[in-house]
Amino acid sequence: MKILDRYMLKELVGPFVFGLAAFTLLFVAGNLLNIARLVSEEHASILSAAKYFVYTLPATLVLTFPMSMLLAVLLAMSRISGESELTAIRAGGVSLYRIAAPLFAVGLLASIVGFLFQEYVVPYASARAADILRNEIQSGGTGALANQTVSTILPNGDQQVTFAQGFDPATNELQGTTVEVFHAGYPISMLYAPRATYSGDRWQFRDAVLFGLQQPCCKVSDYPMLEIDIGADPSQIVEQTKSPEDMSRAEIYKLMESGVKESDRSRYALLQVTFDSKLARPFAALVFTMLAMPLGIRPQRSSSGAGFGISILIVFAYYVVSTVCLAVGRSNPNLSLIMAWLPNVAFGATAIWLVREAAKV
Questions:
Q1: SS3 call for 210
Q2: Do strands 159-168 and 186-199 pair parallel, antiparallel, or not at all (unpaired)?
Q3: pLDDT tens digits for 237-258?
């Protein structure tokens, strides 16, 4: 590694750490208030609240990585250009592209690290945070997941909707379960069982009562034990309770392949747009790095306060555009991949143009 590369990377370290701390603090401020509420109102122990806070941090860090790169490059280039070091380097015959190369390399590395962090650290941390919240902080409850709904399409084309008042992951037991079957949009049967447990590849409904809703109505029979495939095993029910943002792309893909497209199109659209955005979003770090480089070398951007302000404006503009694109992608899943990458393409093209203009000076 040449002296120039080491020098440019050294300039990034301090501003990156500062930016990571500043942006993360902004994001977790609301979460800190929530932690305080858990301690005061839910009587959670300080240790449990602290563990819950730590496990919620990775999801925030994925968002603040790109912002920190933006601020770091802005401040680094502002200092170098403000003290005429950039002019001296270029007077030595070094092009602006060569000066920017280590910065862009770090931006690409930050994107890859952010993607891996998002895929392998965030899902585990979010699951642990949910476990701590359910089992240690809200310890007065049973640990059951409330109001679970599973919808599936039967081989004959009818729709089967299973609703459970609760699901206990510790015992794999559904509580207060109702199974309704719809034909052409109309209910034709309903089964109720106080509880159902998972065995093999079927759910065993105990003390079930089946009602026929077609003429002649209504009660058909009692079943001490009845096996039904509701279209989801216990692990899939737990997966359905997670937000797509707390899942890896592999987990989202598995859910998308489980038949949710036919049974719940709204859920499928959310999964599809999240699946695509999770691939595009980490590369905002590279886009922000490219964008900050030419903006930072302008003399009027020399103060850290101006750099932070510019960072906020760029981040705000990027996430407004991103939110609009994802809304379009969710309304039309066929455009989801294009909409997920459109902000990166638009801001990246702007960054390339700015770099080329700056290199002409």
A1: strand
A2: unpaired
A3: 776 667 888 888 988 888 888 7
